[in-house]
């Protein structure tokens, strides 16, 4: 039997330096190890989980999309951005086999998705090396770069950590996104919200839209859920 309490967490203030944004996190006891452990009928919402031998963390759990049990690793829209971070992803994903789903929306409100059967993020000693493969969906497979090199197997780059395979560029700077860039990626899901710009830095999923993507969601769930 699960019981739950409600906590108010100042998450967005820490992440975005906003002053008056709070999120209510529902805390079950015992603490689930991921969103798939919540009892049937649990509502979509913000919850506290704790992976085995890992830290407590707050997640947005989507209990509706594609059968539920998914946790949102990234939410990007005009007003908010929440990311659980690579360390927390590692603690969750090492527990089981997971799949990942990307939901994309463009300026005219049409939507599309991609599912990859396998996702894993290794620990910091590997520079958070990403495993992602087994595409299906409606947006096409954009987990490749401009030379058709797959994103699968790449390490995470940030503006001060160049782990991509492009010797002449830092793709995290060119595309303004922390990501497992091979060369500069076709799926810039951590890019900027810039509908009108033709910059390489905005949201992109080139096999679907080069411009005009207004929302991206990345959600993971156990493969056997
Ligand atoms: Ca580089």
UniProtKB/TrEMBL annotation:
Species whose genome carries this gene: Mytilus coruscus (Sea mussel)
GO terms for cellular component: extracellular space
InterPro entries: Fibrinogen-like_C (IPR036056), Fibrinogen_a/b/g_C_1 (IPR014716), Fibrinogen_a/b/g_C_dom (IPR002181), Fibrinogen_C-term_domain (IPR050373)
UniProt cross-references to SMART domains, sorted A to Z: FBG
Official protein name in the record: Fibrinogen C-terminal domain-containing protein
TM annotation in the entry: none
Domain Fibrinogen C-terminal, chain residue ranges per copy: 84-224
């Amino acid at each position: 039997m699960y019981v739950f309490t409600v906590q108010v967490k100042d998450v967005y203030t820490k992440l975005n330096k906003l002053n008056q944004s709070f999120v209510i996190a529902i805390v079950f006891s015992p603490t689930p190890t991921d969103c798939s452990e919540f009892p049937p009928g649990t509502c979509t919402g913000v919850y506290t989980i704790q992976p085995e031998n890992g830290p407590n963390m707050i997640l947005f759990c989507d209990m509706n999309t594609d059968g539920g049990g998914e946790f949102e690793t990234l939410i990007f829209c005009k007003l908010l951005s929440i990311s659980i971070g690579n360390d927390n992803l590692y603690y969750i994903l090492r527990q089981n086999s997971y799949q990942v789903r990307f939901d994309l929306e463009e300026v005219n409100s049409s939507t599309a998705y991609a599912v990859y059967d396998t996702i894993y993020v290794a620990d910091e000693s590997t520079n958070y090396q990403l495993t992602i493969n087994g595409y299906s969906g409606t947006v096409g497979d954009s987990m490749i770069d401009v030379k058709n090199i797959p994103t699968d197997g790449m390490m995470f780059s940030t503006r001060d950590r160049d782990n991509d395979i492009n010797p002449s560029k830092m793709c995290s700077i060119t595309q303004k996104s922390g990501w497992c860039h091979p060369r500069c990626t076709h799926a810039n899901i951590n890019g900027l919200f810039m509908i009108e710009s033709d910059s390489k830095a905005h949201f992109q999923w080139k096999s679907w839209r080069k411009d005009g993507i207004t929302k991206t969601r990345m959600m993971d769930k156990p493969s056997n859920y």
